[in-house]
Amino acid sequence: MQTPSILLKNVSVSYGKTKALFDTSIEIPYHTFTGVIGMNGAGKSTLFKVIMGLIKPDQGEVIVCGDDTKTAQKHGHVAYVPQTELVDWDFPISVYKVVMMGRLGSQNILKTITSVDDKYVIDALTQVNMLDFKDKQIGELSGGQKKRVFVARALAQGADILLLDEPFAGLDATSERSLIDLLVSLKEKGKTIILATHDLLSLPETCDNVALIRYTVVAHGPTKEVFTKELVSKTFDGLLHNIKFD
Amino acid sequence: MPLLDFIIEPLQYSFMFKALIVSTVVGITCAILSCFLILKGWSLLGDAISHAVLPGVVLAYMLGIPFGLGAFTFAMIAVILIGFIKSNSKIKEDAVMGIVFTTLFALGLMLISKIVSSVDLTHVLFGEVLGISTESAWYTVSILALVSAIVLIFQRVFMIFAFDPAHAQSVGLPITFIHYAFLVLLAITITGSIQTVGIILVIAMLITPGSTAFLLTKRFPVMLQIAVAISVLSSIVGTYASYYFDVATGGTIVFTQGIIFLLVFSYQKAFSPN
């Protein structure tokens, strides 16, 4: 049996006295599209930070592509597409340079850019249809284009797993559809896609699996089995509007 | 007076020559750091460190050791204190900085009132580059040139640290080390700049050139070049003004930077489509 891309065993995380995640266990298979769903503050971002190795759990074990998080960082297994509001869009940096950041782990101590790095970046920008925008300042792009640039950074990194934090926030329906299509195509090319969202409308038709989070994993599995009115209602405190369940 | 004479005359005096070189190097280093500082949103931290070095300067005076050593020690005390209190309380970082730097600055004022004459106080607070000794000039120029070289060599690392530290950490960059390395370089720069512009005004050197350049470009390398150019121009104007008009060098340097900022800002408001 193949090892999962991500394996969390009994992970607990706290910020000071506040528990953000407790006794969380989850297995995410390779080459799948998983939606991590929960209310704001339910622990989705904390889950991502633990997977990326940005914070150490108080207890439990995190295995990424068969490695501990430190080794996974060195191998660049996981790439992160940040929430829109966490990025300084006025930063004087071009699309090309943002994507080049994906090559950091492969570069020398001075982070010198080589022709190999350049090739990776151009390939990544081509894959997400953003090559024509490579010299633009990052803030000059539309919401959907900005997300594509960060997906390109993940591709330039050569990451097996893409974590996307609230990728659809602020996007219009067309941009959202276009981004979903891109992510599905990447999954079909072998990437593991995990996105956190509290937007439930677009998920059932997109995700293979769903993980419902409320300070721990309430339920995880194939979308048809987990994305039920009962379980989603439990996750969202019963605050459900306009959601259709099969 | 012919332009050439206007330029050459002050440089016949060694104190003016030293002041021009030191001011220019201070300007270059502060300008380079200012680009990172404002993009990182650390302007207040620069302010905090510059005020917090005062007790270190006074204690160094009392103990007869180089004042740079005392200033650097207290700069690091401030950085560590701010980090420790922020990590171990629910007080927000800006409030922590405010408490730490005002407390240390107050300690410095208390020490000054007991042991140092008012003339020395003025020099520490507002700088006096015209009176810099050859030894101090060499020390300042060497240490700040080294800081500039380090920041420029590792500029991509520091830029990524400013833009997306989470990504940097997620691909294995030693982000805590980079964080403290930058703070050490900032502390050294502030320490080295005190004699030129003083504790009160050094923060302007660390904010204004980068902010002005930020208004003018969307490319980081260009931003660095513009900030350095503005800073060097201001240092030259400040040094010459202190010779010809007998005004404070540090004050004139900072005032010139402020005027350039306002001109750029006004130009942008008047002519920029955005």
User: What is the CATH superfamily of chain A?
Assistant: P-loop containing nucleotide triphosphate hydrolases
Main β sheet profile of chain A: 6 strands, mixed
For the largest beta sheet of chain A, what order do the strands appear in spatially? 5-6-7-3-8-9
Radius of gyration of chain A: 18 Å
Most residues in contact, chain pair and counts = A-B, 32 and 26 residues
Summed over residues and divided by their number, the pLDDT of chain A gives a mean of 88
Proportion of helical residues of chain A: 25-40%
Taking the alpha carbons of the first and last residues of chain A, their distance comes to 31 Å
The tally of strands of chain A reads: 9
Q: How many domain units of chain A? A: 1
Order of helices and strands of chain A: EEEHEHEHHHEHEEEHH
Overall SS class of chain B: mainly alpha
**CATH topology heading of chain A:** Rossmann fold
Task: Characterise this structure.
The complex is a heterodimer of chains A (246) and B (274). The mean pLDDT of chain A is 88. Chain A is an alpha/beta fold and 246 residues long. Chain A is globular and about 50 Å long. Chain A has one domain: 3-Layer(aba) Sandwich (Rossmann fold), CATH 3.40.50.300. A six-stranded mixed β-sheet of chain A has the order 5-6-7-3-8-9, with helices on both faces. A three-stranded antiparallel β-sheet of chain A has the order 2-1-4, with helices on one face. Helices cover 31% and strands 24% of the residues of chain A. With 274 residues, chain B is mainly α. Chain B has one domain: ABC transporter involved in vitamin B12 uptake, BtuC (Orthogonal Bundle). Chain B has 13 helices and no strands. In chain B, α5 packs across α11. Chains A and B meet through α2 and β5 of A and α9, α10 and α12 of B.
